[in-house]
Specification:
Length: 241
Amino acid sequence: MTPEAIQTILEVDRIDTFYGQSHVLQAVSLSIDEREVVCLLGRNGVGKTTTLRSIMGLTPPRNGRILFKGIDISKKPSFQVAQMGIGYMPDDRRIFPDLTLFENLELARRLSKRGNVQWTFEKVYDLFPALVNLKERKGSQLSGGEQKMLAIGRALMKNPDLLLLDEPSEGLAPLIVQNLAEVLGRIRDEGVTILLADQNLKFCRRTSDRGYILEKGMVQFQGTMEAIWQSEEIVKKYLVV
């Protein structure tokens, strides 16, 4: 893809998001180009999850705009946002515990309203070979890591152009985190843009092109992952627990 062909797929323009009277996001802005992997960094409670939920239409912003492919989605319900091409894996995975792994994937495929069929069962299983022998196992019988793989696969079955991932590396063993980083690279190579929220700086450095650091519901720093990694001051101020 030539530089001239790269387009901004998502633009978040000074959004304010509230939970009741609590002002969680304050004038948050960010942008993502096609086929980028961008991460939201910060400690617990700084607004990373709320940013993803605002984009997905689950917690709509009270002020500001969210543009997806140039279309304002700020006030659209989440099912319409999904139909437009945004996939979402929440931090608690939200798989259906009484359905089998296969049924969880099949449900996402059947609900997809998008015509550009790209992701199939075979492609998901190729990404996550560990799932192949678990097709008939119910969601409640899967381990945390297996549920996370299923949740990503389920989001892909809806053929998104933009994939939102909330804490994808949380609770995973180091080897699985390493494999997940490789998987995200393969997903990007398939043409999917990724926005992830995670506290694991090493994981984000390996997977992401750029990062936005949140603190108290505001963007405090943005730059390449290498710039963030090399800045001891920024890491200590905003990322060290």
